[in-house]
Amino acid sequence: MPDNRAWALPYLALVLNALVWGVSWWPLRELQGEGLHPLWSSAVTYLLGAVAMLCFMPKVWGEFVRHKALWLLALAAGTTMVGFNWGVSIGEVIRVVLLFYLMPIWTVLIARVALNERITLKALLRVGLAFAGAVLVLSPNGSLGFPLPSNLAEWLGLMGGAAFALNNIMLRHQAARTAQARLFAMFVGGIVAPTAVAAFLVVALGEGNAFVQWPVLPGLYGGLVLLAFAVTLLVANYGLQYGASRLPANVTSVVMLSEVVFATLSAIVLTNEVLTLQVGIGGAMILLAAALSALENKDAH
């Protein structure tokens, strides 16, 4: 029994993380309804996380400041938050999440440029599979076309996925840094990038623009949702750290794909979104490409 529990807990921790992120669109939309744009919600949430880390692990600040590569990790993580959190708040959750998981394409390209990794035939096949899935997801139902996003939410999902691929590559590149410093860098990025983008849009487009306004103090309900969201993300991130440190990296990557399942089911149940056959097949192709990428890398970790 102890052995079974020892194996089960890391899996459950990863599934918890995937569940939280899969349904994260709901609290973000609730907060948006309370007048707090998802960019501001993201910044406040990660501010709470960063403050908590500094209270219990103050040395992470020094490590973060000394190693400039962690700043790039922060930028990648922050851009990921901008793309994903804003995208799922304003668009079709299913499409945005699937576009976010086009990571096999971006990972191959970025790893080639940043790490000089060789592009293998298997990598090209995964890129082709993911690209074909994107064609199905982005094309109007019943037709096929070049996979270009048709609205801001889809562009944000695509951007978030590219940034997440860079985020994962930087995590590998900075493996010599402590896990706490890498996590803190991601929290800093989650504060700075959403805040910078939101502030820039308000200043550049003026108050009253259709994208984002200055933050307002949420009411009691909004405050409770924000606090619960922040605590839940902290717990989920701990689950990711716990599970990922006890399971092979390829297993972690495959288990985390369950986020798409949670996002799809929650969007169908809680909204009027419908998973069409075309989008379902395209999504399956994207997820298969991501899973194959994770499985091929199992010997590298």
Structural class: mainly alpha
The low-pLDDT segments are none
What percentage of residues falls in helices of 4 or more residues? over 70%
Largest sheet: none
Portion of residues in beta strands equals under 5%
Total number of helices:
14
How far do the termini sit from each other?
A: 28 Å
Tell me the series of helices and strands, N- to C-terminal.
Answer: HHHHHHHHHHHHHH
Could you say how many structural domains there are in total? 1
- The average pLDDT is 85
Count the beta strands: 0
Molecular structure report:
- By secondary structure, the protein is mainly α.
- It has one domain (2-119, 148-248).
- The protein has helices at 2-22, 25-33, 38-56, 59-66, 69-90, 93-100, 103-115, 121-138, 152-173, 179-205, 220-244, 249-256, 258-270, 277-296.
- Helix 3 runs antiparallel to helix 10, helix 5 (69-90) packs across helix 10 and helix 12 packs antiparallel against helix 14.
- The radius of gyration is 19 Å and the shape is globular.
- The model has no long low-confidence stretch (mean pLDDT 85).
Draw up the topology in text:
Elements: H1 2-22, H2 25-33, H3 38-56, H4 59-66, H5 69-90, H6 93-100, H7 103-115, H8 121-138, H9 152-173, H10 179-205, H11 220-244, H12 249-256, H13 258-270, H14 277-296
Helix pairs in contact: 1-11, 1-13, 2-5, 3-10, 3-11, 4-10, 5-6, 5-9, 5-10, 6-9, 6-13, 7-9, 8-14, 12-14
